[in-house]
Each structure stands twice: as C-alpha cells, then as structure tokens.
Amino acid sequence: MSTLVDPTKQRGQGKDVVLDLKELSVYYGNIAAVQDLSMTVYAGEIVTLIGSNGAGKSTTLRTISGLLRPRQGEVIFQGKKINGIPGHDVVKLGVCHSPEGRKIFQKMTVMENLDLGAYTRNDTTAINEDRERVLELFPRLRERINQKAGTMSGGEQQMLAVARALLGNPTLLLLDEPSMGLAPVLVDVIFETIERIRDQGVTVLLVEQNAVAALEIADYAYVMESGRLNVQGDANILLYEPAVTAAYLGGH
Fold it and tell me: Whole-angstrom Cα distance, residue 112 to residue 115?
C-alpha cells in the first residue's frame, strides 16, 4: 500500500483520534469482504473511503456502526473498543449512520422520521435545538415537515436520511453514498452541506462513489480495492495523483 501526503503537514497534530480501525477483517460466510483494514479518523476531519463497487466500503461502515461483527481486528471509538456492541448502543455512544439507499420510513412524515433519529435520547430541549439546526441545514425539509417521506424527491429523501442521522447527536457521522442517484445540482448541495456539518463540529467518514466530489471536500482519503487498502493520503494530493485518477476517477 502506498501513502501520499504533503510532507509539510502533520496530520492529526493536536487532535484527538475519534476512530481507529485496527487490522479489521469482515467476512460474509467464507468470503472476505474486508481484509486487514487499518485506518484512523481525527476529530474535525472529513475522511473519505473510496473504491470501486464491491471494494468493501459499505461493509466497513456497517461494521463500525455495529450492524456487522468483524472476524478479527478492532473498532476503537474515542479510545473504547466497540466491535461486538449492539448497533443501538453504538448510536448512543455517538456514532450515527446514514445508510446506502437512504432507508427512510416512506409512510411516515418528515417530522416522524426526524424524531426516530433521536430515539436513543431523552434530552427534549437539546433534541428540539438539534432539529432546528438540521432544518436550517436543509430548509427544504422544513417546507416538507408534515409530508409523507415517500412522496418526496430522491434528493429530498437523501437530505432526510442525513438529517435523521444528525438527530442522533453524532460525534462521528457515517455517510454511505449520499450522492447516489441525484442530479448534479443536488450533489453540489449535499456536499456543501457535509462541509457545513463538519464545520459545526461533527467528524465525518464518507463512503462515496463520486470520488472526485468526495476528494474535493475531504481532508484525508483511503482507497480500497477488493477488500484491502490500496492507497491512502491527503485528499488534495490523491485528487491529482495519476495512478489514482486513472484507476478510480475516470482520468480526472
């Protein structure tokens, strides 16, 4: 595996480690989906995990959030080993997941979906404040607040999926393919909002098929291929690295 970084910068200097994956291997039956994956996410970063379909990216997020259990290795969140902890307890610790395919509750209203995002919390005042904050991030959702989620456009549903995850009050937000199926103008809106989320103090781990858009907003990137890390480095360097662009970015 190669590492491409700016030698004048020291990543993570003065920052806490939010997430540390140590030699993680995840299997579906006898098939290895992720093998010996080690990566680190520091507080205040947007870190992106990119690679082709089937590379193991979504499996990695599902393992972090407690939906899958690794065969070996560790998931360390804020210094605590969390693999083996049930998913609903992982949410309580501050890891919230906006899954691939949105997975919103189609027959429920926008408000009801948002309320479900806060189901592990009982701090009513803080929940109300966070709901207001996400409605400021996504004003379209305020306009649709009493509308059935399944009647909204794909872009609006994606906004709702991210907003619902934010109602869990995450320290670490896991985003899986937030731009999938969206028109280019909405892709821009989603990625601008991800930057705003980071600026509000939430660390982001982003899995994204649109590698160019992801690298343009990320601080650091990991590139997976067939379940293993292939390249890692500063996102602004990988964005223009010929070997990476030829393989993953369509010659960008």
Answer: 5
Torsion angles phi and psi, residue 179, rounded to 5: -100, 0
Containing structural domain, residue 215: 15-248
Question: Which tens digit of pLDDT belongs to each residue from 136-156?
Answer: 989 999 999 999 999 998 888
Per DSSP bridges, beta strands 172-176 and 95-98 are parallel
Which tokens go with 51? 């690679």
Mean pLDDT (the chain, rounded) = 90
Res 171: pLDDT: 96
Whose CA is closest to 121, among 157, 158, 67, 164?
164
CATH number at residue 82: 3.40.50.300
In a domain, 5, yes or no: no
DSSP assigned state of 109 = B
Span 79-118, pLDDT tens digits: 999 998 999 899 999 999 988 877 888 899 999 999 988 9
Q: Is the distance from CB of 243 to CB of 251 less than 8 angstroms? A: no
Q: DSSP letter at 151?
A: G
pTM for the whole structure: 0.90
The label of the residue with tokens 């906004």 reads: 159
- The one-letter amino acid code at 228 reads R
Q: Let me know: does 237 contact 7? Beta carbons within 8 Å.
A: no
Name the pairing type of β-strands 46-51 and 228-234. Answer: unpaired
**Domain tally, the chain:** 1
Distances in Å between the Cα of 207 and the Cα atoms of 10, 98, 135, 179, 218 are: 24, 10, 24, 10, 11
